[in-house]
């Protein structure tokens, strides 16, 4: 058996889907982003049953109601994980059982983008399921153990997200609610609304893009909706762009955003900054010694 090295030419020719999450407050228009996608190649995973905003959208949808159904759809979309044992979720055995139930997985070939609304509700379904598992009860007393439930919930959510992230040929977009609160120093802090802390902490490291859909106001101008796309942004929103192609602010159009992410790649010396910024005057304050002489 030869060493399975993937050459640079082969790697560059591969079809790579975009994996991302869009966070925003309720009512900002996250679900309505479906209108910006090609309805014939987009699959809507409707977990919230809040599709009034897209009434009349001519695309296909699936509506899982339980965490087991969420896991089944994930393995049906992403295929089996060969690293897992036959008795584990997302294994070959799980995939085969789901194919017997849902039919030929080639029915999904026409879909290029899976739009999951929302990760917030997926987290609630997962937590509801986790509270009924043996790990959520104390071995000693038999009473509910919330620490065990939250631990299992975090493991399940990360496994689900990671499996969908490995669906290389499809775009996978999650949307979720973004909470805003004040910290102890009266500063605005934005956090994803997901049960437990593990999923929210690890999610940015799983997906390629973290986009904040927010209301932006410049000076005394009128507020407008926008995508905030870079980690270093003046608004404090959680954001990340692994592609290096996005500006800090982009128009709130998911279809055109994906076109830009998939566009020609910039040379590394244009999208990566290695040099240290020049120190400003504030970094080298002038002091006065005991004899009245200025020192820098």
Walk me through what this model shows.
This protein has 296 residues and is an alpha/beta fold. The protein has a single domain (17-266), classed as 3-Layer(aba) Sandwich (Rossmann fold). Helix content is 28%, strand content 19%. The chain has eight helices and twelve strands. The protein has helices at residues 8-13, 67-78, 92-102, 119-130, 146-165, 198-206, 254-261, 268-271, and strands at 19-24, 42-46, 60-62, 113-117, 171-182, 188-192, 209-216, 224-228, 240-241, 249-250, 287-288, 294-295. Strands 1, 2, 3, 4, 5, 6, 7, 8, 9 and 10 form a ten-stranded mixed beta sheet that branches. A two-stranded antiparallel sheet has the order 11-12. A hairpin with a 7-residue loop joins strand 7 (209-216) and strand 8 (224-228). It is globular, with a radius of gyration of 23 Å. It starts with 7 loop residues before the first helix and ends with a strand. The model has no long low-confidence stretch (mean pLDDT 90).
Which features would summarize this protein structure in a list?
296 residues, Rossmann fold, 19% strand, two-stranded antiparallel ribbon, globular, ten-stranded mixed sheet, alpha/beta
